[in-house]
Amino acid sequence: MINLNFKNYLLRHLQVMLFTLGRIWRQPLASLMTFMVIGIALALPASLYVLLKNIEQVSTQWDDVAQISLFLKQDINDQKAQKLATELKAWPEITNVSYQSASKSLEEFRKLSGLDSLLDTLPTNPLPAVVIVQPDGKNLQADVIGDLVSRLEALPDVELAQLDMEWLQRLRSINETGQRGISILGLLLSLSVLLVIGNTIRLAILNQQSEIRVIKLVGGTNTFIRRPFLYTGFWYGTLGGFVAWITLLITMGLINGPINELASQYNSQFTLTWLSGSMMLFLPFTGMLLGVMGAWLAVGRHLSAIEPT
Amino acid sequence: MIKFTDVYKRYTNQYEALSGLSFELMDGEMAFLTGHSGAGKSTLLKLIALIERASHGQVLVNNQNLTRLPPRKIPYYRRQIGLVFQDHNLLHDRTVFDNVALPLVIAGENHREIGRRVRAALDKVGLLNKERNLPIALSGGEQQRVGIARAVVNRPPVLLADEPTGNLDPDLSRDIMHLFEQFNQVGVTVFIATHDLDLIKTMPYRQVILHKGRLSQQTEHSI
Questions:
Q1: A72 and A57, same structural domain?
Q2: Are residues A211 and A125 in the same domain?
Q3: Under an 8 A CB cutoff, do A217 and B83 touch?
Q4: Residue A132, domain extent
Q5: Burial class (CB in 10 A: 0-12, 13-18, 19+), A112
C-alpha cells in the first residue's frame, strides 16, 4: 500500500514536471529570452573561471623551473662547497643540486659582460661560489618552498639564498585576487539569476490567479499549488544552465585561436583547457538550484496573498 | 450536518452581513437559501466553505467547529464540501475531463481511480461524450453541469451551490435542480442559495429565508 502511494507520488511529480515543460514549450519566444538571460548571467563568471584555471595551470607548469640560488660565503673553499652540495642532494624537498665555483662564475661573467680589463684590476675574485638548488616544485606548496629558502639561508656556509621565481608568486597572488573577484561576480550574477527566475515565476503566478483560486476552493494545499511553479523554476534554471554551457563553449572556441598563436610565440605547448565536461554538469546544476530557490521565494511571497473571495 | 449558532459576520467597514443567525440543516437534508440581493446568502455559504470566518458565534459542519479550524487544515476540510458557483469557476485551458478530475488529482488518487470516478460523474450529469472538450466549447448549462460533476466527483457529504441556475433558462434550471435532487437522494446534504422562487416553490424542500442578514423565516416542506 505504501509502495503504491509512493509510486503515485512519483507519478504525480513526473506529470507536473512534464506539464510545466509543456507550458514553457508553448511560449517559445518568452521562454527562450528567459533562458538567454540566465545563460549569459551564468556563462560570464564561468568563462572567467575557466580562463583563470588555465592561468593557474600554466603557473604550475612553471613550478618545475623554480630554483634557489645559494650564494656561499667568501671563505668557503671548493671542497667544502662540494660537500655542502652533496649534503643538500639528500634533502627530501630537493630534486637536484648543481655547484658553480667562484672562479667559474667569474669566467662566465667575464664572457658575458666583456669587462675583461676591469676585472683584471680587481685584487680578488668578488663573485661568490653558487650552489643552485631545484626544489621539488610539483609536490611542494609555495609556503613550503619559502620555508625551505629560509632554512637554506640559515646554513652556516650560505651568505644568501634567493628564490628566482618570485614573480611566479606574484602571478599566483594576482590569480588569487582574480579568483576572489570572480567569486564575488559569480555571487552577484547568481543573485540576478535568482531574481530573474523569481520575477518570471511571479508573473506566472499573477497570470494564473484565477486557477490558483479554483484549486484552493476544491481543497488544494499550498504544497500542491506550489509544485508546478517550483518545477517551472527548475526548468528555467536547468535549461538556462545549458544555454550558459553552450555560450561558454562558443566563447572558448573564439578565444582558442588567438591563445594558441600566443602560446606558439612563447614556444609553449600550452593548450586551452575547456573544462567542458565538468561545466556541463556544474552549470545546469547551479541553474537548477537557483531556479528552484527563486521560484520558492516568489511562490512563498505571493501565494498566500491569493485567496478565494 | 450544518449548524449555525448566533453567528455574526462583520466586514471591516462596519457593514454587518449576518446578524445573530442560528439554524440547522440535518444530515441528508436538502434546503434552499433565499432572500433579497445583499441579504447575506453568499456570505452564509462562504462561512460554510471557510472562504470567510465568522466574526462571532459558532459554525459546525460535519461535527467540525469551523471557528477553531487552523488555516493549514482548511484544504482538507474543503474536500468534504462540494461547491457549485453561478459562474462555474472552470479552468478554461483544461479539458472537461481534467476539470472534473481536479479534486481527485489534488487528493492524490491513482490514475485508474480518477478515470473511473470522473467518467461516473460525467455520466451522471450527461456529459460523458464531452470529456475531451474545452469548457469554452460548451453551452452555459453544460458548463454548469461540468461544475456540478467537479463538485461531486470526490463524493463529499455536503454540496453547496450559490445561484447555480442564475444564468440559465427555466427548462435548464429545472434540469439542474433535478440533478441536485438526485445527489440528495443518495444521502448528500444539499444547500442551494437561489432567488429563483418560481422554481423552488414547486419543490418539496425547506427554505431558509434571510432578510438583511437575519433569519426572516424558515418554511417547512412547502408541499
A1: no
A2: no
A3: yes
A4: 67-164
A5: exposed
